[in-house]
Amino acid sequence: MIMQLNRDLSTPLYHQIRDLLLEEIQNGNLSPGERIPSEADLGNKYKVSRITVKQAIQSLVQEGLLYRQQGRGTFVARPKVSHSLNTLTSFSQQMLDRGMIPSTKLIEAEIVTARGRVQEALAISDGTLVTKLKRLRLADQEIMGIQTAYIPVSLCPGLIEIIGDNISLYCLFKEKYNLRLARAIENYTAVLLEPYEARLLDQKEGRPALAADRIAYLADNRALEYVISILRADRYTLSVELHGESGVGN
Q1: Percentage of the chain modeled with pLDDT above 90
Q2: Would 17 disulfide with which of 32, 56, 146, 188, CB 3.0-4.6 Å?
């Protein structure tokens, strides 16, 4: 690895430092959870100002590759969880497939009347009763996101009495109610965390996040679930497998 900066290049010095740090992370020389050298040490090493070093570090923090802890320093973040958009699976199964231990903390559970977007997404009459569940989703005890689900009471009666922490909603659909999801439509939007969301996720207000909007359907095209998820952008990356059309060239 080249440890010196090339001042003859048009590439800004902060970006060169960013690339050198990134290479150290990718090569395993800097491990997840390990503290990187201080801004002063890096400035002395590369003979640049602390402002230049700060720019390089901030770039990697914004990409979710580093994180800061006040009074302690800057550390290497754990690799992001790759979420495949090719298959319909539960959060719990996604984490298990990646060798992580999923858990859930129930924040709210109530019966509400469907209005606005909830009514539209579930294709039900205005005022229909739905079970609203707001839950924190964790992997290896780390908070990954917030999910708010709306399920018609008529499809899952009594759900509010049996749901709790660490209970898989998809398992209940299948085992308790004999309902199997056939497909889902999901949309993602880049957002900034609102104060309430940031507090639940233990993040700073205004940090980038992914907002997911999912409608899951049964085989007969009835909507079983409408879910709004707020996912930490520093812990998630989205993955899609694309296939070319037959006979399509370059």
Answers
A1: 62
A2: 56
Residue 56: predicted pLDDT: 94
Topology classification of domain 81-239: Chorismate lyase (3.40.1410)
Residue 85 to residues 51, 180, 188, 239, 240: CA-CA distances in angstroms? 39, 19, 11, 6, 5
Residue 65 to residues 35, 124, 234, Cα–Cα distance (Å): 12, 43, 8
What mean pLDDT comes out for the span 151-172? Answer: 95
CATH annotation of 13-76: 1.10.10.10
Task: For strands 73-76 and 66-69, give the pairing.
Answer: antiparallel
Predicted structure pTM score: 0.74
> To 5 degrees, how large is the angle CA 18–CA 24–CA 25?
90
CA–CA distance, 20 with 64 (Å, rounded to integer): 16
Please answer whether residues 126 and 149 qualify as being in contact, where contact means their C-beta atoms are separated by less than 8 angstroms. no
